[in-house]
Amino acid sequence: MSTQQTENRFIVPIGPQHPALKEPGHFEFVVDGEIVTGASVRLGYVHRGIEKGAEDRTWTQNLYLMERICGICSHIHATAFVQGVEKLAGVEAPPRARAIREIFAELERIHSHMLWLGVAAHEGGFDALFMYSWRDREVVMDMLEMLSGNRVHYSANLIGGVKYDLTPEMMDKIRDGLNYLEERLLHYLNVVNNDETFIGRTRGIGTMTREQAQLLGAVGPTARASNFAYDVRVDAPYAAYAEFPVEMVVAEEGDLHARFVVRILETMESIRVLRRIFDNLPESELVTRVPRRIPAGETISRVEAPRGELFYFIASNGGEKPERVKVRTPSLCNWGTVITLAVGHKLADMPMILAGIDPCFSCNDRLVMVRRNQRDPQVWTWADLRNYGIEYYR
Amino acid sequence: MGVEASKPWQQVLDKIRTWARVNSPWAIHFNSGSCNGCDIEILATLTPHYDVERFGIKLQGSPRHADVLICTGPVSLQAKDRLLRIYWQMPEPKFVIAVGSCGLSGGVFHGCYNIVHGIDEVLPVDVFVPGCPPRPEGIIYGVAVLLEALKSGKRPERTMKVELPAGVDMTAMEVGQ
């Protein structure tokens, strides 16, 4: 599976279909013996044209389309979209609805981080941890199913509120589940910190300094593991994060091990904040009245997805469909770090470094242009694009 | 399926083949542009809570070792060629399970410009598992339906054939039958 180019220079292609990848993406690692000297990534296999499709659907229909940008962080995509639309319409969701949005978001974060813990351990050849963490993840999936009736796409959001309410019995059940999960997470923290083989695979691998994280535009737990303290939930609270704040988890080291620790501690922080919400869940109606027409205007909306900052730009022309929806997902911001960190490591470390940013391919397949020393990269005419396409395939 | 079962020893061989095939189908999973939801549910079926390995089903990395292609997603134009290539690399007899609403018809992405609207537009599909995403139980049931059909010797009717285009050399694919 390698192509010889010149002497002592091999390119190892990985993907789009590969046992280590659950989703299609193509990577090329230039290796000198065992050591990676260069890396490139090619995405686009999951590009479906959602942003264009959004212009063809009504505001309500778009809610369901946006959820399906990503199956792991589906609630947070809908939340970002809904918050932007609410801002345009000039309404605010009732307090209970905002708290329920936070409940769903934090449950989703628990499920996403446990999923990642398993997959990352699997990439490192540690399948026992994969199986255990996925077994325990089913506890969260059962909670989400109890709340919404679906395991993956909860569809909890409406424009102006939420669909589902919590009863005291549900909260008691979730509390029981959270107690169990907390116990298990402490165990995993112990494994991650003390298992010798695991530390051998993670400590000092893929180390990223704070300056690098800032320069490469890393977001979310990947950046926070490099001591770059930035979390939208803390810095610009949305939903009910002002009333039920979370504490930011930051680590100093910046290596793979720090990313494991940050994510596990973040999960435990989610459990803590969930308990606080259940104790003080505000009473109010679930949905507020929304004007029939969304007024013309532009807005942005930022939320903290499990993988980092998620950014939506929404433009309305007063019609029944959005004029433009632009999505900036955290996975795409983190790809730059992989390409840089890969250099100098062994080929065998690549799966774990790839998994270390918690990549989600379905989130990030959109066009991105980074061109140095050129005029405004945001504006491309049709002729420019055509020429670029011809040049690319030459 | 397989060889013409005319002579007694061939019939016996065929029975043994079917027995082996039904008891341990190896599957390969390909995401052709889905949102990831179906893929994590497929992965969840492998983990202790659902555990499909008790039926002998194993997720296999290489298409050349696989009997069943479990495919998700509305097939983006970019992934289409790759999907066909994986299908051609699989040894005969091969079976396709389409998982998820968007794999059936494009689902929520219907009308987006970069998709083919369903796996059955590209490949002959044996079993469809609807749902957005289907529950792991649904996926297991889909596999069980396929295995049941194989056991009774009835293969789901094929509506289309996907042949290798002339001039493409993939002789190594012929291994297996």
Describe the structure.
The complex is a heterodimer of chains A (394) and B (177). With 394 residues, chain A is α+β, with helices and mostly antiparallel strands. Chain A has a single domain (50-329), classed as Cytochrome-c3 Hydrogenase, chain B (Orthogonal Bundle). Chain A is 47% helix and 14% strand. Chain A contains 14 helices and nine strands. Chain A has helices spanning 50-54, 59-67, 74-89, 95-123, 127-148, 168-194, 196-202, 210-216, 220-224, 232-235, 256-279, 330-342, 350-356, 382-393, and strands at 3-6, 9-14, 26-32, 35-42, 157-158, 161-162, 297-305, 308-316, 322-328. In chain A, strands 1-2-3-4 form a four-stranded antiparallel sheet. In chain A, strand 3 (26-32) and strand 4 form a beta hairpin. In chain A, helix 4 (95-123) packs antiparallel against helix 5, helix 4 packs antiparallel against helix 13 (350-356) and helix 5 (127-148) packs antiparallel against helix 6 (168-194). The longest helix of chain A is centred in the N-terminal third of the chain and has 29 residues, at 95-123. The radius of gyration of chain A is 22 Å and the shape is globular. Chain A starts with a strand and ends with a helix. Chain B has a five-stranded parallel sheet with strand order 2-1-3-4-5, sandwiched between helices. Chain B is of the alpha/beta class and 177 residues long. Chain B contains five helices and five strands, in the order H-E-H-E-E-H-E-H-E-H. Chain B is globular, with a radius of gyration of 16 Å. The longest helix of chain B has 16 residues, at 8-23. Mean pLDDT of chain B is 82; it is low at 171-177. Helices cover 34% and strands 12% of the residues of chain B. Chain B starts with 7 loop residues before the first helix and ends in a 26-residue tail after the last helix. Chain B has a domain at 38-152: Rossmann fold (3-Layer(aba) Sandwich). The interface between A and B is large, with 40 and 40 residues.
